[in-house]
Amino acid sequence: MAQPFDYESSNRASASGEGHTDASSLERLAEIAARTAEETGKFANVDAILRIPVTMQVVLGSATIPVANLMKLGRGAVVPLDHRVGEPVDVVVNGRIVARGEVVVVEEDNSRFGVSLTEIVGPLGQGDT
């Protein structure tokens, strides 16, 4: 028998700060959706839906500069961004903020960066600015 997903209790847990430490909340939601769909047969093509590619971006910051200054930029130029070192970065999927995290160096390859998720943003853009 499928376990129903209690959206309200999930929101209360999110508001209290529970479950915001990693991607496990998203993984659990995907697992529940897949199991529910499998058991009820309502969404026979859930695997096809889970394979749909989405665009994910990590926003390190932004800057506003005049076109004249933009034209002067060259190799090695530094453009200061509005985020400071240590501030959380936004994780954006298809134009919507879904999480926040910290930039980390990937252990296997010190020349690559990743994001450690620290907060999953609530549904319908709560926390979205």
TrEMBL record:
It comes from the Bacteria. InterPro entries: FliN (IPR012826), FliN-like_C (IPR001543), FliN/MopA/SpaO (IPR051469), FliN_T3SS_HrcQb (IPR001172), SpoA-like_sf (IPR036429). GO terms for biological process: bacterial-type flagellum-dependent cell motility; chemotaxis. GO terms for cellular component: bacterial-type flagellum basal body; plasma membrane. SUPFAM superfamilies: Surface presentation of antigens (SPOA) (SSF101801). It is found in: Cell membrane; Bacterial flagellum basal body. Its main location: membrane. GO terms for molecular function: cytoskeletal motor activity. The keyword Cell membrane applies. Residues 1-25 are annotated as: Disordered. Belongs to the FliN/MopA/SpaO family. FliN is one of three proteins (FliG, FliN, FliM) that form the rotor-mounted switch complex (C ring), located at the base of the basal body. This complex interacts with the CheY and CheZ chemotaxis proteins, in addition to contacting components of the motor that determine the direction of flagellar rotation. This is Flagellar motor switch protein FliN. It comes from Bradyrhizobium centrolobii.
